[in-house]
Write the structure tokens for this entry.
Amino acid sequence: MKIAKVEAMVLKSPGLYQNPEGAAESPGPAFMGLVKVTTDNGIVGYSDMETAAPVAKAAIEAPQWSEEGLELFEGLARLVEGENPLETERLWYKMYRGSIYYGRRGVAIQAISAIDIALWDIAGKVYQQPIHILLGAKWRERVRAYASTLFRKTPDDMREATRHYVGLGFTAVKFGWGGFGEDLARDLSLLEAAREELGDQRDLLVDTGWLVERTAKEAIQLVKAMAPYRPYLVEEPLHPEHYDSYRQLAENVDTLIACGEQEATEWGFRELIERGKVDVLQPDLTRCGGLTAARRIVHMAERANILVIPHSWCSDLLTAASLHLTAYMRRAPFVEFNTSTGPLSRDLSLNPIQLRDGYLDVPDGPGLGVEVNEEAVARYRIA
């Protein structure tokens, strides 16, 4: 069996992304990349990727650079086509090495991530096993989900939103971005409203939005000010690459500090673990290097005795991949669930992932266990 074709597609939602301060809910991605890998015997693997999709498509489809087999500036598709899709470790490194002079991080590793996930999807279909079994473990049948949504504009809006998610069955809600960080008193009033509505038995998570520039001491003051509302974690209160500031923050507060959705490769996450001293790693499988890299990251986190809660905001394809990773981990407190109703988030799967009693079931079908809606792909595809 060989890889016959790697196809990179650009999908576009009917409207451009808008995130007004008082938005009731995020509309989801405006653009999305989709990778489709097909073998010579017709087995297909898929992955989404939340990135600059046209740039990722160019990285995948770039032409042959060298006639001498140097493989330093090669398009990712050329590096894996003709290869055995089951050699995920070797193909990951071949893609990483072959793109090293224009990649190493950013869009190149994001494209590698998507191809890697698609290869794992193929492997599961070949062996007729879900991905978590191929990874090596199924510690749980389901994972507790938190609703991932935007901060609302007023305390009353926060109460209404919180009631809505609790009514859907969520036992945890993460509010993020949406104007948070512009006024501390206002921020705290929003958190107070959410905590009052959640009560003592449900969890509140906070994504402060790293676009608001903060020093380490400003972040310490912010997290301590939020402490009375008992956030389970505070996500990315600092720029993702301010590792030393993260260490200063983590060592001076009791609240769990989370970071990592912007990070890539096990080498990047080693910085977060050893320099940043964060409490929670948040690898996004379509950014960190795919499942091949994520498995290494999980091993590092377990050795350091810290938590891993994957970032999974894109579509049901990413949520499914993240559920397989959380099934593989010995400890998995949460999985993120994007509450957007936008078409690129909700329409790509024929068997959408559903919340049940506050949990998401780990898919048990072959590969990702999610069937792609080809009609929706055709409807939203622009390149």
